[in-house]
Amino acid sequence: MDANRRGFLFGVPIALFGLESLSELTSAQAAADVTQSSADAADFWVRGMGVPAHLVPGGEASRGRKPAGPQGTNFAREPLFLHYDPDEKTLLPASQIPVAKMLPSGDAKVDFQLVRMRLNPDDTKVFENYASGGIYWDMQQQTSAAPAAAPDFWSEASVVVSAMFPGAGGGAGGRGGGGKGGSGKKPAKGNAFFPQSAPSKPTAPSAGQGTSTVPLQQAKQAQSIALPGGFGKAAFTCFAKDHKKSAFGQFVSALSMVTNSPAMSYLPMLSLPGIGGPALSAIRGLVGTLQSHGGDQQPILQSPPTDVFAVGQGITDDAVRLRNGYYIAVPMEHAALLEPDLSKLKVLQGFLVPKEATEMDIYDTMGGTAPGVSYLSLKIGVAQTKVPGKCA
């Protein structure tokens, strides 16, 4: 098998042809444990991500349910992508990036890195009872030269599936901050997943007290994909999950045992740099099952497949426009909180901070910057390339 067609699960190569049977097996084991939480996850994967209903527990029933939002997703938790423009020194919706600042046309290579996740106090309270979480991301290239010509036919995709243990990682939300209130005491029950950040100064608590942060991929863990014609689609979900008696929990426990690194905050579970359409469907079914099985899950951010363009030619109105730099994904229900301050903020090391802040100020300012907003930061790299045998 070609090296680019291999994936790694817990660091061990796996054959892609076995993924669909693994997903079906896990789904069959989970079918008897369908809760409302599972049903909501099934709606997202079947209606939003196009996974065959039989691959996700509760998926068959989702055909007859009223969708929770557009395409069966939770619209409040769908992301608005914002780009930090270093020239204009402002944040702006990614759909409004000037075409003149993008590659004009042709094929493009896109590198993407998930940098950090920062949760507001309300989300911290909601998710603090969960023991772990998962992130799924894929970016797909299309075979056709026109985005609308064959919207469901994807020739190749780059996929990342990861587990996160925010209670163990660095940043202001890690155990090094002493847990809730920075007291140094053992966190209260359920506080291990999203512990509250410690005030930077004990005598003057930060305005961001109660926010939590999770470091994600390192630069060396970034993924790349070539986009023929400069366009494709991207989809992802980030969810909190209780590990008890769930397939996801068993995966996470096994991963911790194999790596012998229970204190890490981010661990890649499955990395696939280049796969075909049938395998992508099976992987989505597997991750959908891991999220659904056992119920007791909560979405943090979830995006059905969204058009992405690295070039200006043929761009569609609602597409996420890609250029070099940082992006912030904000839940739709938090977007209005950021709107008045878009010109007052910038991104440093994946954190939203005031425009006047320096790298010396990040720790003291990131918690109190937009404290009511949860976000995921990404770093994108775009370069012109030529894809042999693909559309020009």
Which helices and strands, and how do they pair?
Layout: E1 7-9, E2 12-14, H1 19-30, H2 36-48, H3 59-62, E3 79-85, E4 90-93, E5 107-119, H4 121-127, E6 132-142, E7 154-164, E8 212-215, E9 223-227, E10 231-241, H5 247-259, E11 266-275, H6 277-292, E12 297-309, E13 320-321, E14 325-331, H7 335-338, E15 345-348, E16 351-354, H8 362-365, E17 375-385
Parallel strand pairs: 12-13
Antiparallel strand pairs: 1-2, 1-11, 3-4, 3-14, 5-8, 5-9, 5-17, 6-7, 6-10, 7-11, 10-12, 14-17, 15-16
Give the domain tally.
1
What is the subunit organization of this protein? Answer: single chain
How many angstroms separate the termini?
Answer: 28 Å
- Described by the principal axes of the CA atoms, the overall outline is globular
Keywords:
eight-stranded mixed beta sheet, alpha+beta, seven-stranded antiparallel beta sheet, 392 residues, single chain
Q: Gist?
A:
With 392 residues, this protein is an alpha+beta fold.
What can you tell me about this protein's structure?
Mean pLDDT is 77; it is low at 1-22, 27-33 and 168-206. The protein has one domain (3-176, 223-385). The protein has an 8-stranded mixed β-sheet with strand order 2-1-11-7-6-10-12-13, covered by helices on one side. Strands 3, 4, 5, 8, 9, 14 and 17 form a 7-stranded antiparallel β-sheet that branches. It has a two-stranded antiparallel sheet with strand order 15-16. 19% of the residues lie in helices and 31% in strands. The chain contains 8 helices and 17 strands. By secondary structure, the protein is an alpha+beta fold. Helix 2 runs antiparallel to helix 6.
